[in-house]
Amino acid sequence: MNTEIELSLSLSPSHNAEFKRKVAKLLPQASKPVEQLLVSIYYDTPALDLAKRRMGLRLRKQGNQWIQTVKFGQKGGGGLNARTEVEHITHGQMLELANIGHVEARDFLCDDKIATRLQPTFATHITRTLWEVEDKKGNIVELALDVGHIECDGREHPVNEVEIELKRGDVEAVFTLALMLARNFALLPQQRSKAERGYRLFEQVPTTPVGAQDVKLDPEITPYEARRQVMLECLRQLQFNMVELGQHEDDMEFVHQARVAIRRMRSADKAFAALPTDSVWNQLEAKLQTLGQQLGEIRDRDVLVRETIAAVEPTLSDKLRLEPIKKRLMVQREALMQALREDLESPRIGMLLLQVLHWLHQDPPAEAAEGKLRPFTRDALNRRASSVDKLARRWYKLNEEQRHTLRKQVKKLRYTAEFFATLYDADKVKKYLSSQQAMQKVLGTMNDAAVCRHMLETLASQYPETAFAGGAVAGWYERIDLESSQRTEQALEALKEARPFW
Asked: Which PROSITE patterns match (predicted)?
């Protein structure tokens, strides 16, 4: 029995030959490559009892041997996984549950309710090219390029990824190797293991945009650990959506969720502002901000074409030609998406995601104070609420830029409340968040109107033939903005009367 620590990174199949060729040059200390043909059969019950316990059971044919492996105890995140692994060679292609060298896992799998219902669920067919790398400190990692597919009931899902597994030593050796490779290849952290992808194929779960999830914080952990867990969740959301960009005919929501993930991560940094950071994080945050702006340029055009113009089109289409505006905006969008696809096919974005993951797995400073989490979160929430309150009380004196600042502050307060929600009474948290919704809607509409006006004015200066129709669309949205602003007073009252749940 051992703990498997492994980092998975997706690689475009077009780079496989170059990867194999360059490994010897980049890693002169690596062993000669060994190629293996691996066929793995994964087992579960019809009710997927193993998956529900986050347990995996497989038989793998490696050469002339069959190896039974049980995995459980998922830890880590962001593509780096640490799981307990129990394996042994079997007497052929058959499960030997009684020989599992872990009492709890053996008892669960040998229970008649489980053992009698186990059946093959899916299989993987992989050609693995393997190198062993030992560094100067004696750390040993296994580098593998896996190419093949997952198979289930005639359906297939391709596999093309790099895996780096720690065989001996410190996990820092895994990151050192991964970062070196990421400088030379477009490697994106792979969130889902082959087993997870196999289960999705079995259940025929479509690939959809991934939103934010609550982080169940333990009140006993330190603020440093809470920051790590919250930001890992933000990174999870970002990675899931980034890897899908350009892979779907309609990627509007993937763009949106990737942008939201960056906003949430930067808001998390501010929520934990009382904790010291370092120059490394400051540089990473600046790069994340740049990526967020890149996604924002695409998102703004999506909203304008598919929401704003789509809403006004039934009213104005008989009087105005809106198609030229939509066409110009979509041409711009495609150019922006092409630039983003090129970035995804270069080392830039994968390197950034890997650097953030690495930073989040660093130990806190030795001198870091281990304060209580609840008092820390109360202070953070009070700071956020105070920033909103100061601006909200001066609402009628705020200019457009200041109202935009208030919108961002309200959103950051909502994110902060969501980060810490599991530490408090769920009903009180829900009431508090709902009390902010009206103001968020008012401010969001105002911001959309400003963005709409700016984009259409810019478009008209570039393409004068769009000026008249663009002005009509902007005017229509200004009316919606005016109607929204008339509800401001009620929204402000709800915001002021919100009872803090902390």
From this structure: CHAD, CYTH
pTM over 0.70: yes
346 and 468 part of one domain = yes
Please report whether residue 211 resides in a domain.
no
Using one digit for the tens of pLDDT, what is the confidence trace for 407-457? 899 999 999 999 999 999 999 999 999 888 888 888 888 888 888 889 999
186 and 273 in a single domain? The answer is no
Dig out the tokens for 465 from the structure. Answer: 């033939």
Q: Record the tokens describing residue 112, joined without a space.
A: 């008649």
Structure token digits, residue 297: 């340029």
Residues 278, 138, single domain; the answer is no
Please state the φ and ψ torsions of residue 151, each to the nearest 5 degrees. Answer: -130, 135
Residue pair 93/80 in contact (Cβ under 8 Å)? The answer is no
pLDDT value, residue 41: 98
d(CA 481, CA 444): 10
Tokens of 131: 């190198």
CA distance 173 to 301: 43
How many Å separate Cα 182 from the centre of its chain?
18
- What is the mean pLDDT of the segment spanning 234-251? 92
Q: Are residues 190 and 237 located together in one domain of the fold?
A: no
Whole-angstrom distance, CA of residue 435 vs CA of residue 496: 9
Position 371 scores a pLDDT of: 79
Range of the domain at 111: 2-203
Among 203, 234, 250, which residue terminates a domain?
203
Degrees (nearest 5) of the Cα angle 290, 190, 265?
Answer: 35
Q: Contact, 6 vs 163, CB < 8 A?
A: yes
Burial tier of 425 (Cβ tally within 10 Å: 0-12, 13-18, 19+): exposed
194 and 310 belong to one structural domain: no
Q: How far is CA 42 from CA 29, 36, 79, 97, 99, in A?
A: 35, 19, 21, 14, 18
Contact predicate 150/197, CB 8 Å = yes
